[in-house]
Amino acid sequence: MDDGRSYVVIGGGLAGLASAVWLAEAGKRVTVLERRARLGGRTRAMTVTGVPDPADNGQHVVATGYEHLFRYLTSVGTADAVEFPHSGSLRWPGGRVTALHTRGVRSIGTLFGAHPDAGAAERLRAAVATVRLIRQALRPPADLADLSTGQWFERIGMPAKARVALWDWLALGIAAEPVQRGSAKVFAGVLATAVRLGLRDRRAVSIGYPTVDLDTLYIAGAERVFRERGVEVRYRAAARRIVVADGTVRAVLLDDGTEIPADAVVCAVPNSHIRGLLDDLPEHPEIYAAADKLGVTPIVSTNLYLDGPLGTKAAMEAIIGGAGVIDEVFDRQRMHRRPTDGVWLYCLTTSGAYEQIHRSHDEIVTEQLDLLRRYYPDAAQRKVVHAQVVKMPEATFSQVVGTDALRPDQRTSVPGLVLAGDWTRTDWSATMESAAQSAARAVGALLELPPA
Length: 452
Ligand SMILES: Cc1cc2nc3c(=O)[nH]c(=O)nc-3n(C[C@H](O)[C@H](O)[C@H](O)COP(=O)(O)OP(=O)(O)OC[C@H]3O[C@@H](n4cnc5c(N)ncnc54)[C@H](O)[C@@H]3O)c2cc1C
Hints:
Layout: E1 6-10, H1 14-25, E2 29-33, E3 45-46, E4 55-56, E5 62-63, H2 67-76, E6 82-83, E7 87-91, E8 97-101, H3 106-111, H4 120-138, H5 149-155, H6 160-175, H7 184-201, E9 207-210, H8 214-229, E10 232-234, E11 239-245, E12 248-254, E13 259-261, E14 264-267, H9 284-294, E15 297-306, E16 316-319, E17 328-331, H10 332-336, E18 344-351, H11 361-375, E19 384-396, E20 417-419, H12 432-447
Organism: Nocardia aurantia
Protein name: Hydroxysqualene dehydroxylase
Keywords: Oxidoreductase
């Protein structure tokens, strides 16, 4: 119901879109301010002239436990555009492939020992270490915050083969940081969330992917909701400061000097863009300091359009031992169930790409093709029709040792001013679910405001 307030959402990424959609659903008058010329933030499609099937700014996977993200997808009408396959593949040098079960009872077998060459004794040790890992995730030892994920795996005795085949890769995927740097506490937190959700829903949390590009998944439906509910979107509107006086939100000041009147604000920008916006908030020094310490981590994604198939066995393939060059290969033909039309699209991901981010487009493509040829025998015959390298130096906030306790709450000392974004405090690491959950909490806090 319209309460006469003007609600302003700063940032048109997932957290901002979800906040705006949910406020509009609640009947509020909403304006979205986005500094770019388009919505989507870090989840968007990339167009390539003359090539069918738009790729994304980076392949995004989802988990069954992403309940707030699914609430958003339901609001924008695309909840059925996500699929959870029964398995992915682990791909080894020379082209060897083993199954990575992501659903059902067989996923427990994967969890307890995914390495195809592990003997019975090693599998038993992996199972014992996994149980220990889960127990410590649920009841973290006092010093876990001081450990890297790698140190934690070592301490609980996770066998090397289990680490190579599953755990190091999983930890890299969750924290977007190599295990030598990634925080054990962050990884434990996500594991604990997954276990709790699994127990609640009586099914293991599994991994899936969108069957459409990210513009179709997240943006088109939001734009429809905005049209239907009269949400105004202002593009190229970079917010500079949220104006607060006497403990009340008054306006949002833009870079060009315009003041947008506001009675309530969701500030949904990444930690790397927060500085200045909260200057009127008494606790801004602590929030800025935390935002700086959280820092950023790079991801490099390469969308390779080839003249023939690569010979994948599953839509998602983890490249074992390819860390630093390629972590995963995603087969968009399988994912989007689309005819190939003479061009095959493969999306390659490298998380924690501290070295790769500094290389040129051509160097990255050459290095990745060399690696693909070692893992996919068919790659030798393939020609690159088009290659698109998407470097994201600020892909997510960094979840290295010492960062787990830094994330600020959505509520601030000013009731009409709330924070959202993947970096604010949630049950997840830097993920789309974290962005959506933060939006749910931020909107929840605003809907509790007393009548205007
Ligand atoms: C390559 C890559 C792969 C990823 N893979 C996965 C994955 O597999 N699974 C997963 O769950 N997550 C993944 N993530 C993380 C996920 O994309 C992010 O956590 C999520 O999209 C963050 O959403 P957000 O709304 O918090 O931030 P953003 O999407 O960054 O949105 C913030 C918005 O605010 C705008 N903005 C900034 N400053 C201002 C200002 N002053 N005024 C107005 N607007 C402003 C920005 O332009 C942007 O549109 C990945 C991220 C990347 C980059």
